[in-house]
């Protein structure tokens, strides 16, 4: 069994606008059978309203060609273009997936241009009701800001999940594809927050089973999954192996400029679309961390992406190509090479060389999902390329879903970052939504944090990251608080104390995590491989390119012109801002500069004292979280209370370990005592 996340539809008493929800009327072309999407909308609305308000309604289908309406009250659903609907509101502003919700004459209208729009409108209405919001006088037009709202699952064919902290895969097990009730509930849950593209398998496509997902061995089963997804407006995507023509095709090369390779991909893709006409496309990780790619053949990433894109093109498929390309065999002795430079160095020269159905998927930071990184400069550089932002909902470096770390505030900062690529409209949100350069394929992708655990996300509070990603990718302007508020109210009883405690815990959690882990943007002080828990020198003399450069005088990586030159990859005025210690935002100081321990920060304390102080504060903040959570006993569902309480205990222990390891390490390196005379070393 498993939870329904934010679709639990808890019952609420005394909902004041219940009288508007008497019936469900659906305008539909009578000669057509209801589509899967329409059936799902009906199911969702009838079950949802029944569960929340104890209202029993059934759908009344009305011929869409009808010209007059005798409807007295209730929900009215219809596409634009149907006579009766057109009278109700001006729907010109609606885009493909948008919807209009409007109350008029005792009716709640849900109007869309497409059935997908209606689906999102229905989920929006249910969300408002579930959170207790009134719907009288309602009038909203919602169009998604991004066309691609994508989840990347890193699920392996054996059922394990790379960087998965919530159990095993619910998409695959023992090299077989799973299609069952959970597939349906997954689709409902993610569709309700606007997700419309899902990649079900790991970007590291290793072995013949994963590589063979694009062949007849799996396509018929995948077709069943794709049909379920389609009923919720979701397109199925697959991660593909760049060397598939060799590994499963038995061909002599995977050279993208070889005609045989191009033909192989064409045939492969034709076959996929024959079986799954609504297939979305491929996601590719190439030339990265051991994955094959075009570099082997002295070809560019544009050559590599385009050969696949051309195979997909006739069917409207998209090719998503990741920019996480760097040399993972660097030399830590060499202060001039810098992994942070890699995405920009590898891709800037290719701007404009990608086909129009290629999309570059770029991680938010130049390194790898650390608790604090600057925004990658690549977004501010590329001008003639489709780009989407990749974030990681899976908390690989942010506590692995044992710690609470609400990531929406981090993603908001990324989205609001001004790249200065143009004078106006040049934030990351503008760039990835196509506002800056008018690209067609734009949006956001998240590495999913789900698995087959009862609550889907291991930590119940990690559900807010999944929820928030969907909502944010739909509307990048929502605030972190708004998103948290919606999430809390859909899941927990509507009580002030509950709301306040959970809101506090979520909203402070990212900064708290940052305080007791690695300071001022330096990152990486984790145990190698699994990446959980402190290990200051874990990667320091390794080849992955992730260093803190601490010695007895100070620490930090010099990324100015005197150092690796990374800061110059930004547009002005950002480049100069990062170049100078004085103007560099302090939370990123050690990312850009080597700083002596006695350097005075703006707060007046020295760098070393700041490290000690924040590590004590971080632990205190976790103690406060534990206290707040304990105060919820009896007020929220017992199982959630227990699960979270258990994880908070683990978090507190781990936070103390971080504090003591970091403080001890830097005390021993620097020899500087704590000004407040606390115990800082062991
Ligand atoms: C890193 C993960 C690794 C992924 C890689 C990626 O440690 O497991 O394969 O990113 O994004 O964060 O490809």
Automatic annotation (TrEMBL):
Name the Gene Ontology molecular function terms of this record.
alpha-glucuronidase activity; xylan alpha-1,2-glucuronosidase activity
Catalytic residues in the record: 289, 368, 396
> Which residue range or ranges hold the Alpha glucuronidase N-terminal domain?
5-125
Q: What InterPro entries would the database entry show?
A: A-glucoronidase_C_sf, GH, Glyco_hydro_67_aGlcAse, Glyco_hydro_67_aGlcAse_N, Glyco_hydro_67_C, Glyco_hydro_67_cat, Hex-like_dom2
Which keywords does this Swiss-Prot/TrEMBL entry list?
A: Carbohydrate metabolism, Glycosidase, Hydrolase, Polysaccharide degradation, Xylan degradation
Q: Which reaction does it catalyse?
A: Hydrolysis of (1->2)-alpha-D-(4-O-methyl)glucuronosyl links in the main chain of hardwood xylans
Q: What are the residue boundaries of the Glycosyl hydrolase family 67 C-terminal domain, all occurrences included?
A: 457-678
Pfam families the UniProt entry points to: Glyco_hydro_67C (PF07477), Glyco_hydro_67M (PF07488), Glyco_hydro_67N (PF03648)
- Identify the SUPFAM superfamilies for this entry: (Trans)glycosidases, beta-N-acetylhexosaminidase-like domain
Q: Which residues cross the membrane?
A: none
Q: Does the keyword Hydrolase apply?
A: yes
Q: Can you supply a Gene Ontology BP term from the record?
A: xylan catabolic process
**Residues of the Glycosyl hydrolase family 67 catalytic domain:** 129-456
| PANTHER family cross-referenced by the UniProt entry | ALPHA-GLUCURONIDASE A (PTHR39207)
Query: What subunit structure does UniProt give?
Result: Homodimer.
What family does this belong to? Belongs to the glycosyl hydrolase 67 family.
This one is known as Xylan alpha-1,2-glucuronidase
């Amino acid at each position: 069994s498993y939870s329904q996340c934010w679709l639990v539809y808890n019952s609420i008493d005394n909902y004041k606008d219940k009288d508007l929800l008497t019936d469900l009327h659906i305008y539909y072309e009578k000669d057509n059978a209801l589509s899967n999407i329409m059936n799902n909308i009906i199911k969702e609305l009838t079950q949802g309203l029944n569960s929340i308000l104890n209202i029993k309604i059934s759908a009344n289908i009305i011929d869409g060609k009808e010209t007059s309406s005798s409807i007295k009250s209730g929900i009215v659903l219809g596409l634009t273009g149907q006579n009766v609907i057109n009278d109700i509101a001006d729907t010109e502003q609606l885009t493909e997936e948008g919807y209009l919700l409007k109350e008029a004459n005792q009716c709640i209208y849900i109007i869309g241009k497409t059935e997908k729009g209606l689906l999102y409108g229905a989920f929006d209405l249910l969300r408002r009701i579930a959170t207790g919001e009134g719907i009288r006088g309602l009038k909203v037009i919602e169009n998604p800001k991004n066309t691609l709202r994508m989840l990347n699952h890193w699920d392996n064919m054996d059922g394990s999940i790379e960087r998965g902290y919530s159990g095993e895969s619910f998409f695959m097990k023992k090299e077989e594809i799973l299609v069952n009730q959970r597939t349906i509930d997954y689709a409902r849950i993610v569709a309700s927050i606007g997700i419309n593209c899902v990649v079900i398998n790991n970007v590291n496509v290793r072995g013949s089973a994963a590589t063979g997902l694009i062949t007849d061995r799996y396509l018929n089963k995948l077709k069943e999954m794709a049909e379920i997804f389609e009923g919720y407006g979701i397109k199925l995507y697959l991660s593909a192996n760049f060397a598939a023509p060799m590994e499963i095709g038995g061909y002599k090369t995977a050279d993208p400029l070889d005609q045989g390779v191009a033909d192989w991909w064409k045939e492969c893709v034709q076959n996929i679309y024959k079986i799954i006409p609504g297939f979305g496309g491929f996601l590719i990780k190439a030339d990265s961390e051991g994955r094959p790619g075009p570099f082997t053949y002295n070809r560019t990433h544009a050559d590599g992406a385009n050969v696949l894109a051309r195979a997909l093109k006739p069917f409207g498929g998209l090719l998503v190509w990741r920019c996480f390309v760097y040399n993972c065999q660097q030399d830590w002795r060499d202060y001039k090479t810098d992994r942070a430079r890699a995405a920009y160095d590898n891709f800037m020269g290719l701007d404009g060389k990608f086909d129009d159905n290629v999309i570059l998927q770029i991680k938010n930071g130049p390194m790898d999902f650390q608790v604090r990184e600057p925004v990658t400069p690549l977004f501010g550089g590329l001008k003639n390329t489709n780009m989407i932002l990749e974030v990681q909902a899976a908390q690989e470096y942010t506590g692995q879903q044992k710690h609470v770390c609400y990531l929406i505030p981090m993603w908001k900062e990324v989205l609001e970052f001004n790249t200065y690529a143009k004078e106006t409209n040049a934030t990351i949100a503008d760039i990835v939504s196509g506002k800056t350069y008018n690209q067609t394929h734009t949006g956001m992708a998240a590495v999913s944090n789900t698995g087959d655990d009862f609550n889907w996300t291991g930590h119940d509070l990690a559900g807010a990251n999944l929820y928030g990603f969907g909502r944010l990718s739909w509307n990048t302007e929502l605030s972190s608080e708004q998103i948290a508020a919606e999430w809390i109210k859909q899941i927990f009883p509507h009580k002030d104390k509950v709301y306040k405690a959970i809101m506090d815990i979520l909203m402070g959690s990212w900064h708290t995590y940052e305080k007791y882990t690695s300071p001022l943007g330096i990152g990486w002080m984790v145990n190698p491989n699994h990446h959980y828990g402190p290990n200051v020198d874990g990667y320091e003399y390794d080849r992955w390119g992730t260093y803190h450069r601490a010695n007895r005088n100070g620490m930090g990586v010099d990324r100015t012109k005197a150092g690796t030159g990374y800061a110059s990859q930004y547009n002005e005025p950002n480049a100069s801002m990062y170049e100078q210690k004085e103007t560099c935002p302090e939370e990123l100081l050690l990312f850009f500069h080597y700083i002596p321990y006695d350097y005075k920060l703006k707060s007046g304390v020295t760098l070393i004292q700041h490290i000690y102080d924040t590590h004590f504060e971080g632990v205190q903040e976790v103690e406060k979280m534990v206290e707040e959570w304990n105060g919820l006993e009896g007020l929220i569902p017992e199982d959630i209370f227990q699960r979270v309480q258990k994880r908070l205990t683990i978090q507190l222990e781990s936070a103390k370990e971080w504090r003591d390891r970091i403080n001890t390490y830097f005390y021993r390196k620097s020899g500087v005592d704590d000004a407040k005379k606390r115990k800082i070393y062991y």
